Amino acid sequence: QVQLVESGGGLVQAGGSLRLSCAASGSSFRIVNMAWYRQAPGKQRDMVARITAAGSTNYADSVKGRFTISRDNNKNTLYLQMNSLKPEDTAVYYCNAYITNAGLYNYWGQGTQVTVSS
């Protein structure tokens, strides 16, 4: 069994920065693609940024130029550097990963709250 655990959320003023982390733990697994999603109250869960095993990235238009996704394959950890935060970035942020472990499976973290005050 593989677990994804996010950290780094919190309360920040508009224009500020936060860095989210997502650590994968378990045994005998390999992480393929990883992504960050977010879900605001009353809204659907949307992709924020994704990164392939080779390091290719893409972003939602709303965060381009402000957010940067990265990964440390040695540490099985995903990051999201969020700069110039806006109140509309307020949401629960979820880590997502496709992991091979005797098959290909999709995993979600438990989520971390990001609140941006105006």
Describe the SSE topology.
Elements: E1 3-7, E2 10-13, E3 18-25, E4 30-39, E5 46-51, E6 57-59, E7 67-72, E8 77-82, E9 91-100, E10 104-108, E11 112-117
Protein model, in words:
It is a single chain. The protein has 118 residues and is an all-beta fold. It has strands at residues 3-7, 10-13, 18-25, 30-39, 46-51, 57-59, 67-72, 77-82, 91-100, 104-108, 112-117. The strands form two sheets. Strands 2, 4, 5, 6, 9, 10 and 11 form a seven-stranded mixed sheet that branches. A hairpin with a 3-residue loop joins strand 9 and strand 10. The mean pLDDT is 95.
Quick take:
The chain is an all-beta fold and 118 residues long.
Number of strands: 11
Question: Oligomeric form of this entry?
Answer: single chain
Q: What Rg is obtained from the alpha carbons, in whole angstroms?
A: 14 Å
Shape: elongated
User: What's the SSE pattern?
Assistant: EEEEEEEEEEE
Distance between the termini: 40 Å
Q: What is the average per-residue confidence, as pLDDT, rounded to a whole number?
A: 95
Sheet of most strands: 7 strands, mixed
Number of helical segments?
0
Which strand-content bin applies to the residues?
over 45%
Uncertain segments are: none
- SS class: mainly beta
Specify the helix fraction band: under 10%
